[in-house]
Amino acid sequence: xxxxxxxxxxxxxxxxxxxxxxxxxxxxAGRKAAPQRIPVRGATKSKxxxxxxxxxxxxxxxxxxxxxxDTRALAVIAMEAxxxxxxxxxxxxxxxxxxxxxxxIGVVSGRSDRQVDAxxxxxxxxxxxxxxxxxxxxxSGNGRWTLLDFGGFVIHVFYHPVRExxxxxxxxxxxxxxxxxxxxxxxxxxxxxxxxxL
Length: 198
What we know:
By secondary structure, this protein is of the alpha+beta class. It has a domain at 65-180: Beta Polymerase, domain 2. The protein is 26% helix and 15% strand. It contains 4 helices and 5 strands, in the order ααββαβββα. The protein has helices spanning 56-62, 65-84, 113-129, 160-166, and strands spanning 88-94, 104-110, 136-138, 145-149, 153-159. The chain has a 5-stranded mixed beta sheet. β4 (145-149) and β5 form a beta hairpin. α2 (65-84) crosses α3.
């Protein structure tokens, strides 16, 4: 068996093994190094810096008044299509100065679940005739609520008791309303407006 010899210092003390200096001069004491990132398979390293998305206000400022007027006109056509199906109490809210996801929100009611579906179908056909297809459609087929999203405007078609429960108009109480020509039979001031003549 071989004996290993330990090195000793000047006064016969044992020397401690040298520690690797793991602390970098630019990192404060007590702070650990960040773990090395593992690249995603197939990803290439980008040489350009990612540009920050401009705030919503900047993109809204670039839109012209003519574009907003065109969107308003299409939203009014959609509300008129709902009125052709005897929709109740239509409200078109201008949220172009407040909302970031759309410019106009339309809310109408139907007297029954079948009428809700008929109103939503009429709005879709009217917009298709003007070259606009919905970007999304939610809640269709159940007769309680249908949302039609056309980008610049969205239309909510509710069964009237469900509309009263959710009360979307109160969320946008400070937003201006677009004036619509509403026939008297489509207002709730009529005693038989909700269920028709009994």
